[in-house]
């Protein structure tokens, strides 16, 4: 079967409607597709030149991972689509990553070529050695590639590689296929009512599922326009909403919190009227506190549409488009084609039959346990990690690692994670083990435990509980520690706080008892000093 993603894109390719609006102007679908096909041509020609030496294929990149380092906007989208339409796998990475992290990710993905926006030349420089760098601006002027290859793309070909943190130290690359992306976009178009009349305000990072698939791909494939901002900036987003430049917005809870802070400071006086005029505002990637949902309702008359998703499964559960059916604190019921199951500690499974109506407001809790998901939006596997892929599935179901409960009327609520080592800060999923691994390289740190502490602004705040090496306590203070860690980790993984202790609480097996640390820290909050018992 050919790629449903490529088929939909070629249908849109003759449209004169706006596909992307960025700070440079508007780009129609026809212009975007022409630019994407030229990027594809450049990639295939470049691949063919190297292929001539190696005797490789010239009509498809055959799953080559191409790294995108391009600022958000039409050029980002044409680079992304160009890679996919060439039979490659797009790997978008954040320009905020320090060189060490970029180098590790590019190495793990086996990246040989980088598609570069000129503004990010300095970011790419440290990882350019041994790799070809292709300026998007040049690629967009190349001759389009051969026509036939687009129709040769298969639904099960991987199209997108997203790195996600897990319970192993380093992140794993999740491979999403053409089918995954097309199914996901169609599910959300239908569930959330996206149409050619919509303009989606987009200020999410593009190296994670929310920004690239849930927001951008859904909007593109629905034929909606996407208004892409260079980054999230509360003042700018509030101003865009105030002047009604969009009909829909997708955000993580921290973004809502930032918007309210901005409005409370007297910013964007027309904001409330603009927010009321939005057709749709969604929240996801982390739990939306009921207080924030209610604040939005006070402003607009409805709570945001909250849904549950994950890199490996896309959006699985969603509240309904009809505001009357939304329930604050709950993430809704399975989308069509998504099967959700709750499995309790005793291994008892409680399946949810898709199509059963979810009547709001009623019903007690009928199941509580780990949430498992099955269906065509579930990913293909982790790149080069057959072991981790196998471990992630059981009996054909993807085990999310989220603990959830289901009400008798088919609504789901997230209760937390099965692993204390997975944190969510500002919508980013973080691995405590990965951060600990980096911090252990610091000579002044004898022992360390990274924990997530509940936090109003971030959902969870990353805290490093540190046992210093003798006489080196000063180097473990948060200032120097953050400066040091920023050279090794993405800025949002860097601990916001460090707590110096004499020893870490351990169980009989020698494992650090993190829940105890979290409890002690929460209890000490509000005190003068963050000191734990020595
Ligand atoms: C930024 N910082 C963070 C942070 N984001 N620290 C912890 N957690 C975060 N999430 C750091 C900055 O590096 C900076 O450090 C300081 O905090 C203040 O930065 P800022 O400029 O105020 O923050 P900003 O850049 O505006 O970022 C906030 C944010 C961002 C909310 C816009 O975190 C963000 O874009 N989050 C979205 C994440 C996302 O898309 N997740 C989707 C995963 S997919 P310093 O030291 O310089 O002061 C998924 C599936 C699904 O979950 O269902 O959607
Ligand atoms: P990621 O691995 O970055 O895709 O993050 C996926 C994780 O985000 C899920 O496993 C959940 O833990 C969390 N998540 C996503 N949406 C929600 C939500 N609406 N409420 C609570 N947690 C969420």
UniProtKB/TrEMBL annotation:
InterPro entries xref list: AMP-bd_C, AMP-bd_C_sf, AMP-binding_CS, AMP-dep_synth/lig_dom, ANL_N_sf
Pfam family for this entry, one: AMP-binding_C
Record Gene3D superfamilies: 3.30.300.30, N-terminal domain of ligase-like
GO biological process: fatty acid metabolic process
GO MF entries: medium-chain fatty acid-CoA ligase activity
Annotated region (Disordered), positions in chain: 1-21
All residue ranges annotated as the AMP-dependent synthetase/ligase domain in the record: 16-383
Protein name: Long-chain fatty acid--CoA ligase
Species lineage: Bacteria, Pseudomonadati, Myxococcota, Polyangia, Polyangiales
